[in-house]
Amino acid sequence: MIIIAAGLLVGDGMRFGNGCTSGHGVCGISRLSLRGFGATVFYILAGGLTVAMFREVWGVI
Amino acid sequence: MRRNVSAFVAGALFGGGLFISGMTDTAKVQGSLDVFGDWDPTLAFVMGGAIIPMAIAWAVARDRRPLSGGAFPAPRLPEPGRDLIVGSMFFGMGWGLAGLCPRPALASLSYGGWGHWLFLVAMLAGMWAAVPPRARLMPEPA
To answer: What percent of chain B has pLDDT over 90?
Structure first.
């Protein structure tokens, strides 16, 4: 269940935000793109919060 | 032909790098996002280490064209929009839940077991499902 939800979110987010970890984080930041920086900040923030909630608070992952 | 060879070499290099650096290790990826728990910040060095040669590559590519034809991709829209923020938040949530992002998910298919295939199928479904709402929010520039 979690894997399916995670896959849906990653695929959805990738299309919506036009990129992924290596796309925005590596290619974007290395050419000093504001979108690259912005995306990286938001996905790391969301990833950190998600792990915090699901692992530290609910203990499901 | 040259294009295919360079794509193959680049893909092999990238996949090998992801594997060696631990980006395909879901527990390690989740550990690197687990800021409030048992935080393992080592993967930040992978990204930092990847950005340096990539920045050099962009500098070399400036005012040049690929040997195999075509052109290097130009930067897209100049500033972050709603699409970028919403998309990145979704992406990060999924990334944290599974410890997988697209490239490592593909790279680890060969040994990751059925869970990784399930993730891939769900990811493709998510990509497909994102098209209509995205078109409404952000009309593609022609």
So the answer is: 0
